[in-house]
């Protein structure tokens, strides 16, 4: 290919090119029984393009692209009926995918374990996770510092059983037949940890209710 995700190869460092080739090989091994090389590379390169414009950490881009492509390919496989995974899938959406939806994802994954799947996304993804949200979640023993703001894609929304929106308004995607919930929560953007704690605790309460409604047993989570 002469371009990678809209960027000429000469625009990428040798390390980036090698990292993308490694990512392509890993994804190819994971999804070999479902998708061909062309589909996998298309998802990897378009995922790279999602982050290339606004990222301030170019050396991290191939890893972000690999993680996002893996999520999208997993979602597409579910939509197309590959595999026999009956676990419920929940998608948490907010504007920047930097605070509310990331805290919800953190609680959901921590409490549900392997019994359910959760993803998150934003209508206008930010550059990094809100540090106050990271700190507030760390107080509960949950590390969301390795997460990253990302957009949603059609296959991810279509694969979800429940779509939880938080402040993205008309920008939130609507697909017929999906279960939607709109959680009205204060936006933690620009807030300190003390201001974020009440939002965090309300998110935990709502996640626990949702897990109960989905008949997913929630693990114990001690107070920090």
UniProtKB/TrEMBL annotation:
The keyword Glycoprotein appears for this protein: no
Domain of life the protein comes from: Bacteria
Span of domain Phosphotyrosine protein phosphatase I: 88-213
Keywords per UniProt: Arsenical resistance
Pfam hit, one: Phosphatase-like_N
SUPFAM superfamilies: Phosphotyrosine protein phosphatases I (SSF52788)
UniProt entry tagged with the keyword Ribosomal protein: no
NCBIfam families referenced in this protein's UniProt entry, alphabetically: MSMEG_6209_Nter
Protein name: Protein-tyrosine-phosphatase
Native organism: Kribbella orskensis
Lineage: Bacteria, Bacillati, Actinomycetota, Actinomycetes, Propionibacteriales
């Amino acid at each position: 290919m002469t371009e990678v995700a809209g960027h000429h190869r000469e625009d990428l460092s040798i390390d980036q090119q090698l990292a993308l080739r490694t990512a392509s090989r890993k994804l190819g091994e994971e999804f070999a029984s479902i998708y061909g090389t062309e589909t996998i590379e298309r998802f990897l390169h378009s995922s790279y393009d999602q982050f290339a414009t606004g990222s301030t950490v170019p050396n991290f881009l191939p890893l972000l692209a690999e993680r996002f492509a893996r999520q999208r390919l997993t979602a597409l496989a579910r939509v197309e009926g590959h595999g026999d995974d009956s676990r419920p899938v929940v998608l948490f959406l907010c504007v920047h995918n930097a605070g509310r939806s990331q805290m919800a994802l953190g609680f959901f994954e921590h409490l549900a374990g392997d019994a359910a799947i959760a993803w998150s996304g934003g209508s206008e993804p930010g550059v990094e996770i809100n540090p106050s949200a990271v700190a507030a979640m760390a107080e509960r023993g949950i590390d969301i510092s390795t997460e990253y703001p990302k957009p949603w894609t059609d296959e991810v929304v279509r694969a979800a059983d429940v779509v939880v929106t938080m402040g993205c308004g008309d920008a939130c995607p609507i697909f017929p037949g999906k279960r939607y919930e709109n959680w009205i929560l204060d936006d933690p953007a620009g807030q300190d940890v003390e201001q974020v704690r009440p939002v965090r605790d309300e998110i935990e309460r709502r996640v626990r209710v949702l897990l109960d409604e989905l008949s997913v047993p929630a693990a114990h989570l001690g107070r920090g």
